[in-house]
Amino acid sequence: MVKYGLDYTRCRWILPLLLGIGVIFGIIALAGRGWLESQTLPYVHQASLWESCRRPEQGGEWTCKSLMGYAWGRAAAATYLVGFILLVICFALAIIAFAIDTLRFNFIRGIGGLLFVAAVFSIMGLVIYPVKFSTEIQMTGINMFSWAYGFGWTTAIMEICLGFFFCCLPNYEDQILGNVKPTYFYSSP
């Protein structure tokens, strides 16, 4: 952002925008029913973060069972939800930080640290879920962790990457605010 001449006033909303996209991906992961799906016919199993649904044969009625009856189900949902709530808090703080005319760079570094904490919680939930689900829930046929689970991992990866950006941005404070004289490589004889 700094090295290639992008102006701070034009690019100041890129990081909050990326955090907003991460929040949207987190909502999709929380609400999506595609954490686990049957990969081949007959499609008899489908699961979300909250429940596991199966049907006896193709075209039958789905019967769903809540995963909140399992301790690991509550742990996976709670840790991922805590990570998501921290992400939403970081999004709100980023909007506040970048809306102020005088940018507070220590405040931005704190947002980066909070994003790393959110990533830890999200990854804990994303690891607990498949490990315990595949050992404690009976599955038939070939199953795959699907699109909503992928959105969960995308959110966690975005939290890590944006955490680095928010932590490293204060190192370029003078360049961002335009307090550095340009360096010219040509010198006249």
TrEMBL record:
In what way does this protein cross or attach to the membrane?
Multi-pass membrane protein
Q: Mention any one GO cellular component term assigned to this protein in its UniProt record.
A: cytoplasm
Q: Where are the transmembrane segments?
A: 12-32, 77-100, 107-131, 151-172
Protein keywords: Apoptosis, Cell adhesion, Cell junction, Cell membrane, Cytoplasm, Membrane, Transmembrane, Transmembrane helix
Q: Can you say where in the cell this protein is located?
A: Cell junction, Desmosome; Cell membrane; Cytoplasm
Stretches assigned to coiled coil: none
Pfam entry (one): PMP22_Claudin
Q: Might you name a Gene Ontology BP term for this protein? A: apoptotic process
Can you tell which superkingdom this protein's organism belongs to?
Eukaryota
User: Entry's PANTHER family?
Assistant: P53 APOPTOSIS EFFECTOR RELATED TO PMP22 A, P53-INDUCED PROTEIN RELATED
Family classification: Belongs to the TMEM47 family.
Question: What is the name of the protein in this document?
Answer: p53 apoptosis effector related to PMP-22
- Annotated organism of origin: Ciconia maguari
